[in-house]
Amino acid sequence: MIAWKRAALVGLASWAIPLALSFLLFPLKKSNAPLFETLMALAVLVTAGALFSLYFRGRALAAREALLVGLLWLAINLAMDYPIFAYGPMKMPALAYYSEIGLVYLTFPAFGFWASRLALR
Question: What are the residue boundaries of the structural domains of the chain, listed by start?
């Protein structure tokens, strides 16, 4: 059974940690955009691993729960990004957002599901 409050709080961290790193790494975007994108994808992946470990600490591991928690985190990240990238300082069209940033958040459900499947073997 999903611990919704815990999942939501950790989900907020899944958004805040890569966002904070993006501010630190942002100068790279102009000088070396591919490196910036790679580092950000890596930041999301490492964040996913650390936060799934935190979420499941003291809990039984379940692939279905990991997938659902990952989907929740995907939704949280998209919802938190929306005001910043639709109206805020990083204003960009939806297609550009999803192709540059939004699709990376699919890492959360994919990583959660497959890592939990591997751990359950």
Answer: 4-120
Tens-place pLDDT, residues 56-89: 999 999 999 999 999 999 999 999 999 998 898 8
Answer for the pair 33, 93: CB distance below 8 angstroms, yes or no: no
Instruction: Give CA separation, 73 vs 29, 44, 83, 87, in Å.
Output: 25, 11, 17, 22
Q: What's the alpha-carbon Rg for the chain, to the nearest Å?
A: 15
Residue 86: CB atoms within 10 Å: 13
Q: Is 92 helix (H, G, I), strand (E, B) or coil?
A: coil
Local structure of residue 91 (DSSP, 8 states): -
Residue 79, Cβ density class (10 Å: 0-12 exposed, 13-18 middle, ≥19 buried): exposed
